[in-house]
User: What shape does this take?
Amino acid sequence: MSAIVVVGTQWGDEGKGKVIDFLSEQADVVVRHQGGNNAGHTVVVHDREFKLHLVPSGILYPDTLCVIANGVVIDPKVLLEEIAYLEARGVDVKRLRISSKAHVVMPYHSKMDALNEERRGDQKIGTTLRGIGPAYMDKAARVGIRVGDLLHPGEFRDRLARVLEEKNHVLSRAYAVEPFDVDEMYDTFLAYGQAIKAYVSDTSRLVNAAIDRGQRVLFEGAQGTMLDIDHGTYPFVTSSHPSAGGAAIGAGVGPTKIDRVYGVAKAYTTRVGDGPFPTELTDAVGEDIRTRGHEFGTTTGRPRRVGWLDAVVLRYAVRVNGLSGIAVTRLDVLDGLPSLKIATAYEYQGARLTEFPDTSWQFRDVVPVYETLPGWDQPIGSVRRLEDLPLNARLYLGRIEKAVGVPVVLVSVGRERSHTIPLQSLF
Ligand code: GDP
Ligand code: IMO
Ligand code: MG
Assistant: This one.
């Protein structure tokens, strides 16, 4: 029996989709438990690229059950488009299950996301504008619409009418925006409900039963630890819990059912959106890494900010997620760089910090303390065994292990499923 959680250790886009797809070969169930279509997970199989936003990355294996659990916020239009996209490419989506407790991202959420960002001006978060923050706000405010509501016309109509009255009031009075029409929204979302009805079920029950039967369950994190609403670089975060604890709440399983947690880390660091980023490279080296790594967002196409690996961030991710090990991705992107830097500590007002600071304003002003390591010349994309990596690539991985205190359990050297060097069994 094995239930494992895979989370991002940085600011998202670490290559979680690729790692989850690789591990899904051995999984019976893959579960998304937080976030929404702010996520963009890329999987490449035999040169075919799949971009997934809501459907778990296990869907490309024919027998894996894929669950969108209660902690996810779902834009049904995007979900239906994604199902159609997968079906058009020959992927069987019948093995998808959707929690009736998952909240629905409504049109007023996306509208509010855009209006809020506009109002913030130069203090903007740089959200994906997918309505994720406002949907989680409504969940917490207890005025959300859940997937199950869409399947009960009478109750849905009453609830929507009440919620929309308040939303229209705010939108028209505070923002002078055209109100939404309740009948139109009701018809549209009732139709979405009917279109996804066959997938809706009690997913907590299903996931627990799979674990109890001794099946292998993989929890697929979205975003990353540094975007966690509690543990990330608040307020420049998302509105859910990408850290490991989010899997328990977000899927309705007890923490005692989870065996291990693995973190995915890029061999360097990227961030899309605003907020502090101590190891950011704004020079030609950063531009070079962005270009060779094609660092442009999967969801929004925005250029990703690029920087050196930050081991202080990774150590923090080990702590708040209880990581058992890390998977290092995109090592190949560093091929040919003469030297590489790893931040092993920070300087803050003349003091040395080896732990991630407790406050946002400290983090904003830290200066990284770097160690410089030699790079390697040979391209490593075709390497499949650790011992075949150039010595300096192995030294780089060894330095990461030493700096973060947990083993590197997998190394990824390319986008393809096959471009993977597993170092131990994760299940
Ligand atoms: P996610 O959000 O964590 O799933 O990551 P994204 O899919 O948004 O971004 C990661 C990008 O890196 C995708 O384009 C992947 O195909 C790609 N990728 C993943 N692992 C590797 C790797 O080891 N090497 C290279 N070159 N690309 C990778
Ligand atoms: P995956 O799962 C990278 C970032 C946004 C913004 C902040 C808040 O592909 O790793 P939101 O729309 O969530 O309110 O935006 O979070 N963000 C991501 N960055 N990868 C993601 O997902 C992200 N999802 C949200 O850029 O800074
Ligand atoms: Mg992504």
In short: Residues 12-13, 39-41, 298 surround magnesium ion (ligand 3) (CB under 6 Å). The chain has twelve helices and 20 strands. The chain has three domains: 2-98+200-261, 103-196, 265-422.
